[in-house]
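Would you mind giving me a polypeptide sequence along with per-residue structure tokens?
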Amino acid sequence: TGTCYQKFANKASHYAIVGVAAAVTLDSHGICQRVRIAITGVGARAVRARTSERYLTGKEPTERNLRQAAQRASAGIDFMGDLHGSAEYRGAFTGVVTGRALEIAVSRAAA
């Protein structure tokens, strides 16, 4: 199992504009056995990226599969906007930060 927390932080407060925690467990063949992804900073509360989790579970963590999972991370999220970033801004960065967190979690699981 590998874990990772990545965030795109506000420069003044260091709070996450988008924060993603990822935990990935690989089986003995390198297939994603268990995937958990939590996203914070984008809405009123932290949320799980269950669409991404379901997509990646049972698959090999290839670059393409990780990218596809990251693109699904914003599904169902009601993004908030404020003076630090619009809802669209947060939505765009959610996939980017999720991709980074997944890549690192997978590399740690494989080590």
In short: Residues 87-110 form the longest helix (24 residues).
